[in-house]
Model the fold of this input.
Amino acid sequence: MNTGVRLVHRAERRGIPVAVINRGPTSIDGRGSVRVRIDGGTSETLSALAERLGV
Done:
């Protein structure tokens, strides 16, 4: 099983909401645990978030 999906399963078992950052659809997009879905590249998205947070 894909490591990313394992992390989602662990988060779901603990009741932790999930954010998906990916270009295009993923196998977990329709899951109830997904609270945020960003269609874009991970590096660019996280870099922009860090900059906005002043990190």
Q: What stands out?
A: The CA atoms of residues 4 and 49 lie 21 Å apart. The chain is about 45% helix and 20% strand. The two ends are 33 Å apart (CA to CA). The first strand starts at residue 18 and ends at 22.
